[in-house]
């Protein structure tokens, strides 16, 4: 009887160990982009990234779209940067002229939707504790028209 009880206890402990070792959530967790936290409070830019989740050191493809409440004129840029907790840029930022992108004809009227062609950048070797900031910046370089940020 004592041997049966010991066997059942060992079997129970082994079962519990296996249950705790298996992942409980097997679904893909998509990166969540939220509005940027700055004084301008710009509208949210819709962003999808590939791969998702990002792999440190790999290439990252970014697809973005949005609707700006204000007109987007010549000289506007799209900026992509990984930043640390102190808002320092990690590596180098990607800044491209928005109006020279294929399929975008400037000026884009306020309230008109637009889609930015895929932008490719390199993911830093360590992304834990960083954020990916994607912004559409007006021609003066000061005003942010649309923005999105994802925290890793």
From TrEMBL:
UniProt keyword annotation of Transport present: yes
Cited SUPFAM superfamilies: E set domains
Any Pfam family the entry gives: E1_DerP2_DerF2
Record-level Gene Ontology MF annotations: sterol binding
Top-level taxonomic group: Eukaryota
Record InterPro entries: Ig_E-set (IPR014756), ML_dom (IPR003172), NPC2-like (IPR039670)
Residues in MD-2-related lipid-recognition domain copies: 33-152
Leader sequence residues: 1-21
GO BP term, example: sterol transport
UniProt entry keywords in alphabetical sequence: Lipid transport, Signal, Transport
Subunit structure: Monomer.
Record-stated family: Belongs to the NPC2 family.
Function description: Catalyzes the intermembrane transfer of phosphatidylglycerol and phosphatidylinositol.
Name listed for the protein in its UniProt record: Phosphatidylglycerol/phosphatidylinositol transfer protein
């Amino acid at each position: 009887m004592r041997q049966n009880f010991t066997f059942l206890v060992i079997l129970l402990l082994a079962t519990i160990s296996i249950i705790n070792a298996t992942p409980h959530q097997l679904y893909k967790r998509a990166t969540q982009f939220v509005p940027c936290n700055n004084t301008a409070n710009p509208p949210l830019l819709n962003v999808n990234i590939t791969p998702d989740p990002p792999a440190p050191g790999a290439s990252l493809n970014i697809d973005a779209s949005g609707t700006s409440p204000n007109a987007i004129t010549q000289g506007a840029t799209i900026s992509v940067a990984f930043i640390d907790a102190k808002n320092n840029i990690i590596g180098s930022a990607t800044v491209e002229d928005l109006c020279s992108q294929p399929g975008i004809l400037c000026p884009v009227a306020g309230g008109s939707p637009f889609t930015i062609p895929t932008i490719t950048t390199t993911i830093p070797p360590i992304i834990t504790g960083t954020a990916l900031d994607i912004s559409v910046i007006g021609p003066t370089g000061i005003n942010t028209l649309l923005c999105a940020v994802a925290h890793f």
